[in-house]
Specification:
Oligomer: single chain
Number of helices: 5
Strand content: under 5%
Largest sheet: none
Structural class: mainly alpha
Radius of gyration: 16 Å
Mean pLDDT: 85
Number of strands: 0
Low-confidence stretches: none
Shape: elongated
Amino acid sequence: MTILGDVETYFIIFVPVSIYLLFKRDYKELITILFAILLAVVTMKVFKNIFQRIRPEEFFVVQQGGFSYPSGHSITSAATYWTILKILKTKNINIVILSVFLVIPFLVGFSRLVLGVHWPTDVVFGLLLGYSISIISIILYNKLRVKNE
């Protein structure tokens, strides 16, 4: 599950979503998702460098470098998947697909705990940050949408 939180995976998912949005000429949605991903990555880097929390090395199942707090996988997966979810909800997309986008960040966060590379607070705070970034992105999207209508 942790691979669903890797930056490479976002772009694999981003490609079909982008093609769909480009086909529909929904450029503001595309920009909003990109904004959420970029803001999540920047936020993660800033917070990790501020806190510089050591990972729980005695619990490692896999080797992981860098700092622990907050979970970058949790931030970026929540920001990305939940922003896509909120945009796709307006497009009458199948409820099963929407449910998948809702659940993935929780599974990614849980997988980081199972792999022993994060403390629970790293994941919880990461999910909260990602959710906040998603909300900010959607607020921006709504302002862009209203401004152009």
